[in-house]
Design brief:
Pup1-like
């Protein structure tokens, strides 16, 4: 089955005056369509597996990022200690002069933040590439491989939350971006409550029903304060 070309995707979306195309641009819109087509092939098991893999990537990425940021933050202090550079003690009124523990705190902060951002992105890119290579090494082109190819490692946290949610609730699976219309921009999504989920007022003890051994199972009469609490959420 042949897949539509990038030009046909953009042309069909333009013909229907798709607001997503106007907001995202042609390149990002085509990327969203490719992700949608790969995402539709996934089963519940596939989504659970991808969520677990993304969780592992996030843990490794955060470990590398935060570890590198600590090294970058302490690097100026280590340099001053290693070189034996003396720092003038800080004298404050009413206090004894003291030497700060961290040298060049502003520079240390900038170096720590820079190493955090760079190491985090590079670690995520490396982990994503390793995952794609694992599919190539086993000579398998599964639906999961297509989904990984359509994902962007910069948004690994967002994809993790998406697959974690859609594995449990398929109603949150994204719709076809090509069918998005202006009317859908202002639609409100209403998630119906679960069958066994009670109203929040019952969990607070407001208006709960009488015990089963009572002759009538009528609800308690709410006081004025209870009615105000329920009305205001």
């Amino acid at each position: 089955m042949s897949t539509p070309s990038d030009e046909s995707i953009t042309t069909s979306a333009t013909a229907s005056d798709n607001p997503l195309l106007q907001k995202l641009g042609a390149d990002q819109f085509r990327a969203s369509v490719r992700f949608y087509e790969a995402d539709q092939k996934l089963t519940e098991t596939d989504r659970e597996q991808i969520a677990e893999d993304l969780k592992s990537i996030l843990l490794k990425t955060n470990f590398v990022g935060y570890g590198s940021s600590i090294v970058g933050f302490l690097l100026p202090t280590a340099y001053y200690r290693f070189k034996g550079i003396k720092i003038q003690p800080i004298a404050a009124p009413g206090m004894k002069p003291y030497t700060p523990l961290v040298q060049r705190p502003f520079l240390s902060f900038l170096m720590g933040l820079t190493t955090l951002l760079v190491a985090n992105q590079q670690a995520a890119k490396y982990q994503f590439q390793q995952k794609l290579n694992s599919y190539r090494d086993t000579y398998t082109e599964s639906n999961q491989a297509d989904a990984w190819k359509a994902m962007d490692y910069h948004q690994s946290g967002l994809f993790y939350l998406y697959y974690l949610r859609t594995a449990k609730d398929p109603s949150f699976i994204i719709k076809d971006p090509r069918t998005y219309s202006k009317e859908q921009q202002h639609q409100v999504r209403v998630v119906p409550p679960r069958e066994n989920r009670s109203h929040f007022s019952e969990s607070l003890g407001l208006g709960h029903r009488k015990s089963e051994d009572h002759a009538s199972n009528e609800p308690h009469v709410l006081s004025q304060w209870d009615k105000i609490r329920v009305a205001n959420g």
